[in-house]
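In the current project phase, we have settled on a layout for protein records. One protein thus recorded is set out beneath this paragraph:
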Amino acid sequence: MTNELPDVRPTPLTAELAPAAALLHVLDVTGNLTRAAAVLGIPQPTASRRLAALSARVGTPLTVADGRGLRLTRVGHLLAGAAGRAIDALEHGVRQVGEEIDPASGHVVLGFLHLLGRSLVPTLVRDFRAGNPHVRFSLVQGSRDDIVTGLASGTVDLALVAPPPAAPGLDSVVLDEQELFLAVPADHRLADRAGVGVAELAGEVFVLLEHGYGLRQITDELCAEAGFTPTVAFEGQESDTVRGLVAAGLGVALLPAFGPRPPSGVAEIRLDPPVTREIGLAWPAGHPLPPAVTAFRDFVRQHARAGGPAQR
C-alpha cells in the first residue's frame, strides 16, 4: 500500500505572482506607483521593475498611464482582485497566529446598528474589557444589510443586528426581544391612546429608516399585512434622527422605546397586538474565530443569559 502525497505545488505563474500580490493590491487602491511603493516600504524603481517583469510574464500589460498615475487594465484588475483576496486570507492567518500566541491582546471588529450604540454596545465593551483590558475594538455602525455584508466578506468579526440573519455561512444566536412602539408628535390625535392597531395608521405620514435597515423592513411588512403601503415623507439612517423628525411633527414612526420615558415632543404608544423584534449576535461559520473574537462572542452570550440589558 502506498501513501501518495497531494500535489500542492503552485503553477509557475502563481509562484511568480505571489511576491507581487501586495504591489498589485496596493496599486489598485492608490492608483499611483510611487505611493504604492511607499506603502510597501520598497524603492519605486524596484516596484516598477517588479510590475514590468510580471506584465512580461503574463504576456499583456497590467497597467496603463492615467494622467500622472497608473490605472490597472482589465487583466490587472483580475489579478489584483485575486491578490487582494489572498492577502485578506493571509492577514486573517497572521492575526490568528498573533492572538494564539497572546490572546489577551487581540482585536475585535464589532458591527452594530446605530440604535444599539446608545447603551448596549458601550455596556458590553466596558464589561468585557474589565476582564480583558488589552483587547482592542473597532466599532462599525451601519444598516443591517451593510453590517451583514461586512460579516460575510470578513471585514466585520461579530455583528449585533435585529433581526439576526438567516444566511448560509453565518451563525447567530438570539439575545433578546425588543418591543416596538408607535412614536407620534406629542400633540398628535393618537398621543393619548393606550394602544393602537397598525391598520389605524393607513392615513398617516411616516418617517422611516432607509431600505436596508431592519426597522424599515418590519414597518413595511406590518403595513402590508394591514392592507396598505405607508406614505413616506422622510427617510433617515439613524433612529434618533427619525425620532427628532417625529418630534418636529413631520410624521409617525415605529421605533423601540427611547428610554424610561419618551423625549420631549414625542409620545410612545403600544401597538395592539404588541410587536417585537429579535436582537441577535451573528458571526461567520465554517472556520475558527480568533481567540479574542471567540472570547467576546461567548461573553455576550453569557451576558444575555444572565439578563443583561440587550434591549437598548
Summary: The mean pLDDT is 86.
